[in-house]
């Protein structure tokens, strides 16, 4: 009888641990947008302006990153390429929403659009020059 009671307690402990682990994983996923906003608030509050990126980068991304850094001191971090979980996507989107708004407010205009257009134009101009040489 004692063996049955001990095994039952062990089984309940294992099941309880599994349920707790599943609940923590779900909570971590659901909290992703809140965690992204909190991280962005912390970074902006300490004067660190950055954006996070995922997905297949455009050909001119390196120029875009260089312009953001040189002109405005804004960093870009690539956190994933083509395969992105829903949790990571919601974290990054929430982070970037707050971070870009803070940077645009600080500099008084849409610095990300400005740098993206300049980077794309520079890349296209370099490509046209390279094509003319061939």
Concise structural overview:
This protein has helices at 2-30, 32-45, 61-72, 86-107, 111-133; strands at residues 50-53, 75-78. With 134 residues, the protein is mainly α.
Structure description:
This protein folds into two domains: 1-30; 32-133, no CATH class. It has helices spanning 2-30, 32-45, 61-72, 86-107, 111-133; strands spanning 50-53, 75-78. The protein is mostly helical and 134 residues long. It is elongated and about 85 Å long.
- H/E topology pattern: HHEHEHH
Low-confidence stretches: none
- For the secondary structure, the number of strands is 2
Please outline the major beta sheet: 2 strands, parallel
Number of helices: 5
How large, in whole angstroms, is the Cα Rg?
23 Å
Give me the side-by-side strand order of the main sheet: 1-2
Average pLDDT level: 89
Using brief descriptors, characterize the structure shown.
134 residues; mainly alpha; 2 domains; two-stranded parallel sheet; 2 strands; 75% helix
What topology does this entry show?
Elements: H1 2-30, H2 32-45, E1 50-53, H3 61-72, E2 75-78, H4 86-107, H5 111-133
Parallel strand pairs: 1-2
